[in-house]
Design a protein that fits this description.
Layout lengths: L9 H12 L19 H13 L12 H17 L7 E5 L2 H19 L6 E5 L5 H9 L2 E5 L9 H6 L5 E7 L11 H10 L4 E4 L7 H6 L16 E5 L11 E5 L2 H4 L4 E3 L7 E3 L9 H38 L3 E3 L7 E6 L4 H10 L5 E3 L8 E5 L4 H21 L6 H11 L3 H8 L12 H9 L2 H15 L9
Parallel strand pairs: 2-3, 2-4, 4-5, 5-6
Antiparallel strand pairs: 1-7, 6-7, 8-9, 10-11, 11-13, 12-13
Bound molecules: pyridoxal-5'-phosphate.
Pyridoxal-5'-phosphate binds next to α4.
Length: 477
């Protein structure tokens, strides 16, 4: 497949892009309860205009584009204030939560190595910490030390601290964790890490911007931010409940001395000198301007209004789930993230059934004492759609009970062993995966993955994606 010789007109490009988009789920209005954080049409338009008008500007060089320096400093100032950081707190604008978390880990590793030589630093993580930290450990040569959590999915302070030693670069806690929406005991953890001179990162990627608005609305929210003395860094995504266009997050440090370990500069080559605060070098002005515009357009008042809607929607949905016979929450969340399953039905069938009814509900595999479940990130529109959602959820639960029972974990292990001779292809064939088609129902595949050890599941997923990403091929189905 080579690039067509003749260029396409503006209308031609638009038509082709719309065709490409045909198979996507429609995300406006909140029917996708993950991945998308929709501020509504008006703010979306303002953000798009700002984003596209700064697409060409390059944040690589603030001497050429002081505009982007100003916009970034504004945004960082707003986030710092919101998270009760004092004037010493400094950070960076990044491309997303993963980059913010990766940077926090790299910074901590380099901070530790500057103090004394450490052959193999470790990263102390509750099992509920986001996978981005596993990625960081993998990329930057740290050993992840996984700490189990309690029945309420919060990590125990003693458990976390006893996993730390002299080679610990960073301890991580979540506010809240993505999977269950609960906040780790940050205050108690921070007291102990500070006493031992350990760095503590609070991953507030999903909830950091939203929780203070909840608190202002009268919802009880524990201290999780820079108001807690031992918190040394935080990650906060703007492209989640900041409703900013994608490619927007912030990482903040207690002070500039700590942030210094994040920066990279190189002059030892024949080209322009490089100073990179973050991973990117050439860095589009679009996400920065889009974020500035979204935040400024909404204002504190706008965020407060949306937060009140989300609180209302979350209450309706949490109470609604509890009222549907057979459904149960894994835990009552501290925020607007809900994990639930069924006593007598497969949570994965339930996700499929909801998809048949045009809702996207995310599958979460059952690892580390968290049962296989369905996850909701409750969006801004939830207060309005909650009644419809609950009607469809009830119907989906009924329908799920009629579907064939999913394979048990024992069945999956047996299948896996039997297929071992046939290799991965046999597993893919059994799961109905071939070529670049994505099956309509995913419950069987999810149960398959759920029954395998995490490392095997990860290998299978890499193989599957590798088959999807084939240069020159177009996805079918
Ligand atoms: C979403 C999320 C991340 C990763 O962020 P991306 O923007 O998807 O890279 C990290 N931590 C938590 C708690 C999250 O919810």
């Amino acid at each position: 497949m080579s690039l067509p010789n003749e260029g396409l007109s503006r209308d031609g490009v638009r038509a082709e892009l719309e065709r490409a988009r045909q198979g996507d789920l429609p995300w406006r209005g909140g029917r996708i309860l993950a991945y998308v954080y929709d501020p509504g049409r008006e703010v979306e338009e303002i953000a798009k205009e700002a984003y596209s008008s700064f697409l060409g500007e390059n944040a690589l060089d603030p001497t050429v584009f002081p505009s982007l320096l100003r916009l970034e400093n504004d945004v960082l100032g707003w986030v710092r204030d919101h998270l009760r950081g004092d004037a010493r707190v400094q950070g960076s604008f990044t491309s997303g939560g993963t980059e913010s978390c990766l940077l926090a880990v790299k910074t901590a590793r380099d901070w530790l190595k500057a103090r004394r030589p450490v052959a193999r630093p470790n990263l102390v993580l509750p099992v509920t910490a986001h996978a981005a930290f596993h990625k960081a450990a993998h990329y930057f040569g740290l050993t992840p030390r996984l700490v189990p959590v309690g029945a309420d999915f919060r990590v125990g302070v003693d458990d976390l601290l006893s996993a730390c030693d002299a080679d610990t670069a960073l301890v991580v806690a979540s506010a809240p964790g993505y999977a269950h929406g609960v906040i780790d005991p940050i205050g108690a953890i921070a007291e102990r890490t500070a006493a031992r001179g350990l760095l503590l990162h609070v991953d507030a990627c999903i909830g950091g911007w939203l929780l203070p608005w909840f608190r202002q609305a009268g919802h009880p929210v524990v201290d999780f931010d820079f108001a807690v003395p031992g918190v040394t860094s935080m990650s906060v995504d703007l492209h989640k409940y900041g409703y900013c266009p994608k490619g927007a997050s912030v990482v903040l440090y207690r002070d500039e001395e700590l942030r210094a370990f994040q920066y990279f500069a190189a002059a030892d080559w024949t080209g322009y000198s490089i100073v990179n605060p973050t991973f990117q070098s050439t860095k589009s002005g679009g996400p920065i301007a889009g974020s500035w515009a979204t935040m400024r357009a909404l204002g504190a008042e706008g965020y407060r209004r949306i937060a009140a809607d989300i609180l209302d929607g979350t209450r309706q949905i949490v109470e609604g789930i509890e009222a549907i016979p057979g459904l149960r929450l894994l835990v009552r969340p501290d925020a607007n993230l809900v994990a639930f399953d069924g006593e007598d039905l497969s949570a994965f069938h339930l996700c499929d059934e909801m998809r048949q009814r045009s809702w996207f509900v995310q599958v979460q595999l059952g690892y580390h004492g968290s049962r296989p479940n369905a996850h909701l990130s409750i969006p801004p529109q939830a207060a309005r759609f909650a009644p419809d959602f609950l009607v469809d959820l009830r119907a989906s639960a009924e329908a799920s009970r009629q579907l064939p029972a999913p394979p048990s974990r024992e069945d999956v292990r047996a299948m896996w062993d039997a297929a071992a001779s046939g290799g991965v292809d046999a597993i893919f064939a059994a799961a109905g995966l071939s070529g670049t088609a994505v099956p309509e129902r995913l419950a069987f595949i999810s149960h398959l993955l759920d029954g395998l050890p995490p490392a095997t599941t990860a290998e299978l997923l890499k193989t599957w994606f590798s088959r999807l990403y084939q240069a020159g091929e177009r996805p079918s189905g």
